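Most newcomers find our protein records easier to grasp once they have seen one. The structure tokens are whole numbers drawn from a learned vocabulary of backbone shapes. The record below serves as our worked example for the rest of this section.
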Amino acid sequence: MLTIFTSKLGITISLLSFIFIVTDVNQRFANNHVTKMRDEVAYSTGEITSPQLTHHNAKKLETFINKYQTTVVATPKQAIGMSDKDQNKQNGLLNTLYIDDNKLQLKAVIQTNKENQHQLQTLLLITNVINGEQNIEKFSNHASVYGYQLTIEKNTQVSLVRNAQTIILTMYTGKGLGKY
């Protein structure tokens, strides 16, 4: 270890390291108030004003923008879903049935066992066509569904009857299925 301090290279490196350490300590601790003053000066800016358009340039800009503006013509909104007249015309084999503001779709026919009795029930997806809210509701065989009498025909079809209107609501239609 002592041989490092006896050679010229060792003394030079030690001296440069010592100067570096003293300079670093001096900059960090002794000149702290100078750094604070420099930071305060850097952040003490005056009031910032945004650039202002001249009256001539503002008019020019306004006419340029007006070239691309169009007037919006209000068109009457189309009815969502089906009209009452079209709802009353629904008949035959359907995948979707519209009743008032609701759209009904058959999702499943299930068999439940209650007290050793087999009972058929149907699950209908009911979508409000105005707000898009969806619910799945369970109905028993021969139940009333929005004024229609529901009868479960088979595991993919139910019939809904109201007055002279008969609708077969099915989960899907295949090539072999026709209109009733």
Notes: The CA atoms of residues 64 and 70 lie 13 Å apart. The chain has two domains: 1-43, 84-170.
